[in-house]
Design a protein that fits this description.
It is built from nine helices and seven strands; from the N terminus they run ααβαβαββααβαβαβα. It has 262 residues and is α/β, with parallel strands linked by helices. Keywords: Signal.
Length: 262
């Protein structure tokens, strides 16, 4: 019997056990190389609904496609990508191509990419994901904008589906003036995204104090409080969290698991 909820720390070995109905928990110290070649030998599909691709392993396009092509009705995906260099480096467009095949079933997406890891290609608009309720993702990936470019491919209101209830934006560049997140959030809620209940923004590392709002500029505190009041009037809670308070594409699960082992 295939498990419907598994934790994948190191790719193909755990998925192999899942397909064979043997997975019972997280595995570690497994070599993740040649995942695509290994899984290519198996034509079986999987009933896995919750998939966590988390670890300091090399994410290649072929590996991701091999893993995401197996589940029939994937509901929750968490992906933490910290490495990837050279011609096998996972691009935004390739990530999008792997995700969109689950546009009818995915209810939760949690993607965290360390800065400069995923910079190539364009990430598509998520408005085709009609059942998506929980979205946690890097701002530059979501809006398909390169760090050194002043232009995003689209705005929050253009890409978010009407079903989204929780939105968390990752990245130290989240509050960059090129994104103009305060204006975009006001526009998003003004256009009647009635399902949105909460918005979380990653707090930059240079903001040490609890009340620092440097990322919003010289008058950051005033601007942030005004934005929070505006969103609150529309039933949306705005919060800013330190990196260690966020799920970060499922990376928090690794930390919790390792602590439990001690």
């Amino acid at each position: 019997m295939l498990m419907c909820h598994i934790l994948i720390l190191f790719w193909w070995a755990v998925l192999k056990m899942t397909l064979q109905g043997q997975a019972s928990g997280p595995l570690s110290e497994v070599d993740p190389s040649n995942a695509a070649e290994y899984l290519g030998q198996h034509e079986a599909t999987s009933h896995v609904e919750n998939l966590y691709l988390v670890g300091h392993s090399m994410f290649t396009t072929r590996d991701l496609q091999a893993l995401l092509s197996r589940p029939e009705k994937l509901k929750r995906l968490s992906l933490y990508n910290s490495e990837g260099y050279g011609h096998d480096r996972l691009s935004r467009s390739e990530l999008w191509a792997s995700l969109r095949q689950h546009s009818l079933s995915l209810e939760s997406i949690d993607i965290y990419c360390v800065d400069l890891v995923m910079t190539m290609g364009h990430f598509g608009q998520l408005n085709i994901f009609k059942n998506l309720k929980d979205l946690r993702i890097n701002t530059d990936v979501l809006l398909s904008r390169y760090i050194h470019s002043p232009i995003s491919a689209f705005s929050l209101s253009e890409t978010l589906p009407e079903s989204v209830q929780t939105l968390v934006l990752y990245g130290q560049h989240t509050h960059h003036s090129a994104f103009n997140i305060p204006r975009q959030l006001q526009e998003l809620t003004s256009k009647g995204l009635l399902t949105l209940k909460s918005v979380g923004l990653e707090k930059p590392w240079f903001e040490i104090g609890e009340d620092d709002d440097l990322c919003f500029g010289q008058d950051g505190a005033v601007l942030y409080q005004a934005l929070r009041a505006f969103l609150s009037s529309r039933g949306v809670d705005l919060s800013r969290k330190k990196p260690q308070e966020l799920s970060m594409g499922g990376a928090a699960i690794i930390i919790m698991y390792m602590r439990c082992r001690k």
